[in-house]
């Protein structure tokens, strides 16, 4: 067990290295590949009306004239050991894990991410509780009553749900429940939990439900398909034949193995979402990581984008690790080692 | 030592029809998987409806732009300058004989034309991206499944890695850093290429996993052993023996990947990194609808429904195909 965890942790670190390398490549290698010179690249990070001196300074500060792989090495070193930045005569020390300084605000990146994370966390956790509960129970009920009017209605709604873009359902729900009926506050009304729990909850109900609707539809379809396949297995027949109550057969035998693949997908989905539910945050103007990433891409603020991407990958990798460990608990057929 | 049995010409020819002739007047027809699937699909009204809509959409995307008016013409005379919205039609949508779906608030551009032109971009990007994903996914999936060992390990780990990428962020970042004129392409040509590359290149693990799994079980089958014992090379076995047996899952997952890619393209356009305005796109229209949805709900509903109907039609067809091609189904 311990050996397995250690092996998986090493794998997780390698995965994070790969993601950071690819992200770094997108920003520094692809532009070169596309024919941009170092000066043009530096000019993009200086801002409006770059002077020759400013470009030269930026090139030196960011080490843009060095090979991409050296720049990447410097970045990695910053995460592990911290980094010193020369800002004129003063030397700024950025303690580990250092994700660098924003090009635009000259503030360190990590506190900015920590600042945005609670909003994304609130959105993702709340929505995932709703969609797991709704999606799995609807899927199981549909599978157990296959072909019934309930099953068909649920599956039509679910198919509709997976075919709707979140920003469209978000806008429609805002138009109905916020603008016309006035039940919930509109977009941009998010306040942190610590500031006012009541308003926090009210402002998140619509985003939670909208986001959960899409995923619940997906999970209901997956659960139903998995459940139907499992119910056809021999061991279910065996369980029934030895006289177990139907309830035990369904919950202890069928549901467990149905849930294993769904748990994997849930790990990926939740991890991706913790790194910023870009579309939902955008539609409801929630100041989370996704919105930070979008606005930073818009201004070419590379260190912030790199930070968000790495954080997202970190969540995905870590949650996957947890999911794999949970496997053994859920599915008796899985043995770690 | 065994001596071969002498077989005369007439005895070697088996005649199954002769045996069956006694069963009854009705001859038993052999049906290929394709024929069986088509028979099943024909009975599935829902999937067939999806299929018909898909065909109609493709026709609209190809010939539609030649039939509608220009999506770029401003009809300012139809716009009420005080409220900045159409001054005619029900609910101030500007719907009339000339503009079947109304006009855009603010500019007065024809909505039908924008939807039809948007369909072309949407389907073009989705089809090309799907093609790219399928080619990469099938080649790598079949290779991983057939060769196993370290080849499988490397490819499977790569699939895991791709699934751990924050895809949407990558896509937005990539579109952002590729400046105009890169790779010798300009404007929308470049943008469409980048979109196709991003969507297609990062989506291949989904189909790759399925193909790998199928190949794993196929390679243990007798016909593969038979081909190998006849001295067939790996390339021949992969593409002439295994690939034809994978047509069904490839077809099903391609059909189900297209709607995902349509949603992806719309999302990127919604976030402002899709095709460059004024070229119309469904996602881009929804972006413009965000600030005005409370006063002009129609402007949000039309492109939203266009995306919904298109994606739903492909999903219905894909689900139907999966049921029809499932060899376990009766």
Domain tally of chain B = 1
Biggest beta sheet summary of chain B: 2 strands, antiparallel
Strand proportion of chain B: under 5%
Helix residue percentage of chain B? 55-70%
Please give the most extensive interface between any two protein chains, plus how many residues each contributes: A-B, 48 and 44 residues
Quaternary structure type: heterodimer
Share of helix among residues of chain A? over 70%
Family (chain A): Belongs to the binding-protein-dependent transport system permease family.
Main location (chain A): membrane
Organism (chain A): Actinomadura rayongensis
Subcellular location (chain A): Cell membrane
In short:
The complex is a heterodimer of chains A (337) and B (330). Chain A has helices at residues 2-28, 30-33, 38-46, 52-62, 68-81, 109-144, 149-162, 166-180, 197-231, 234-241, 246-274, 278-284, 289-299, 302-330, and strands at 83-87, 90-94.
Question: How is this structure best described in words?
Answer:
Chain B: InterPro entries: BP-dependent_transpt_permease, MetI-like, MetI-like_sf, OppC_N. Chain B: The chain crosses the membrane at residues 46-68, 121-147, 159-178, 190-211, 250-277, 297-318. The complex is a heterodimer of chains A (337) and B (330). By secondary structure, chain A is mainly alpha-helical. Chain A has a domain at 109-330: MetI-like (MetI-like fold, Orthogonal Bundle), CATH 1.10.3720.10. Helix content of chain A is 74%, strand content 3%. Chain A has 14 helices and two strands, in the order αααααββααααααααα. In chain A, helix 6 packs across helix 9 (197-231), helix 6 runs parallel beside helix 14 (302-330) and helix 9 packs across helix 11. The radius of gyration of chain A is 24 Å and the shape is globular. The mean pLDDT of chain A is 80. Chain B is elongated. Chain B has helices at residues 9-12, 16-20, 33-43, 45-67, 111-147, 149-163, 167-177, 187-218, 222-229, 234-242, 247-270, 282-289, 297-325; strands at 79-80, 85-86. Chain B has a single domain (36-73, 109-325), classed as MetI-like fold (Orthogonal Bundle), CATH 1.10.3720. Chain B has 330 residues and is mostly helical. The longest helix of chain B has 37 residues, at 111-147. Chain B has a two-stranded antiparallel ribbon. In chain B, helix 3 crosses helix 13, helix 5 (111-147) packs antiparallel against helix 6 (149-163) and helix 8 (187-218) runs antiparallel to helix 11. The mean pLDDT of chain B is 78. The chains are: A mainly alpha (337), B mainly alpha (330). Chains A and B meet through helix 1, helix 7, helix 8, helix 11 and helix 12 of A and helix 6, helix 7, helix 11, helix 12 and helix 13 of B.
